[in-house]
Amino acid sequence: MQTSQKHRSAGIHRFYHQPVQEIDPYGLSHIQILNNMYSDGGSQGAAISFQTDQGEFFTLESSSATAGSINYDSPAASVSSNRSPFSPQGSHSCISDPHHSPDTAYGSPLSGSSSADEDHILRQKLRELEISLLGPESDITDSGSFCFVSGGYQAESSASWDWNQMMEVIPRLDLKHVLLACADAVSNADIQRAAGLMHVLDQMVSVSGEPIQRLGAYMLEGLRARLELSGSKIYRALKCEAPISSDLMTYMGILYQICPYWKFAYTSANAVIQEAVEYEPRIHIIDFQIAQGSQWSVLMQKLACRPGGPPVIRITGVDDSQSAHARGGGLDIVGQRLSKAAAECNVPFEFHDVAMDGCEVQLEHLRVQPGEAVVVNFPYVLHHMPDESVTTWNHRDRLIRMVKSLSPRIVTLVEQESNTNTKPFFPRFIETLDYYTAMFESIDVGRPKDDKQRINAEQHCVARDIVNMIACEEAERVERHELLAKWRSRFTMAGFNQYPLSSSVTTAVRDLLKEYDRNYSVQERDWALYLRWRHRDMATSSAWR
């Protein structure tokens, strides 16, 4: 990604080019919106409770809002700064999901139902926030949006932002409330109100602050990218880069060390697989996100010690080309590493690489041979596969059915316990805010707030997912999480039965969590394991056959 010679890009673009110590509060790029439609349809929203500084709780709930295709050419409908814009990518439209909402949320339950009372609470709170910023004379409609005027879409002249008053009010504002108010303005295509709230948020967020301030910085960037239609470009640009020297950890390696999400996936899957193939002489492991391959080095060591000697192991590693940025090279690196580990354990070994995106994989790419016990591993990868709401090919279910046709001995699935796949924009924003609040708090306990490595890891490996979920739609939105209940439905429809996890799997995960903060825990529910941060389910591990 190139920077302009005259201007530096705002927000995450600046994070990508600048050392951490040079990060300053960022400005708002100039924007023009063409043919931008946000439609929540008639879908139900999700309510979420937040706590005020006074200890009071209130519930925010998403609402249905539709804005037509509008041209924003007048100065009143654009926001400018001295920084260069993102490149527009084209218009997007929301995909609605009228059905499912999370059963639980971090700190408070989410409701899948939408009621007039809860909608009124949201509008009232957003109205109170705007009154505190604009003053009681501001001309805002009951829906929380500025009025349409003939010849354009702009604020009434009486609704001016009192910036001196704003600076006095900001310390008393709740950052979550302001983020939700800004997302509501973006959802309603209310550019004037969104721009003002973005200026307020600029004073409240920080990539080196408290967890909610760091998360707020990236969610703000997602809102900006949504308006500028540049979310997919940012997502592609913010890759986890390879280390520049042998002693510099990759950004993903930092997250791997300070929080247990990946180790939870590897540990639980390995424990299940070890049981399922205990007596098998020939094992073929198909990993749809091989990454560094370190998961299989550990498993080979355990299988090498079993009575009767080690099995013959073949591993097929699937990985797209972008993963080379996190690895420092192609899949041949993984094959060499695993071959060396196998030789040290005296395990007969063969590695086969499939260097393509998971949705491109066909049966012939997997080279399954007769007599092999097939094991398939899906670690945090199926949510990237487009489903029926994105394309008629429905690669998500196609892959599951294809794997079933292999008659696998066991299939392991680990996914984030979040619901962002088919939700329309505003309910999805609420869910993203809820889930990643817990995520950033859990990351926070691993390193000091000003730790530059952690800041870089968050910017390059977490922020890109957040921007994608907020800014992108249709095929460009690749971060599409689903709850275990939905995965269970997909696997069952493909002919799978859920495999009950033994106590040894739970024990292995609990032993792992002893290395981390005490607010992490694991729960057994519905034949699956739930990794939790405090009272929030963060990830699930399940097995199928």
TrEMBL record:
* Location of the region described as Disordered in the Swiss-Prot/TrEMBL record: 74-117
KW Transcription regulation (keyword) present: yes
Which portions of the sequence form the region VHIID?
Answer: 252-317
- Cell compartment(s), UniProt: Nucleus
Q: What is its main location?
A: nucleus
An example Gene Ontology CC term for this record: nucleus
For the region Leucine repeat I (LRI), give the residue spans: 173-233
Q: Where is this region: SAW?
A: 471-545
InterPro entries listed in its UniProt record: TF_GRAS (IPR005202)
Q: Does the keyword Transcription regulation apply?
A: yes
Q: Which domain of life is it from?
A: Eukaryota
Q: Locate the compositionally biased regions of type Polar residues.
A: 74-94
Annotated segments matching region Leucine repeat II (LRII): 333-365
Q: Motif VHIID, which positions?
A: 283-287
Q: Which UniProt keywords apply?
A: Nucleus, Transcription, Transcription regulation
Q: Where are the transmembrane segments?
A: none
Q: Which family does it belong to?
A: Belongs to the GRAS family.
Q: What is this protein called?
A: Scarecrow-like protein 13
What is the originating organism of this protein?
Answer: Populus euphratica
- The gene it comes from is LOC105136508
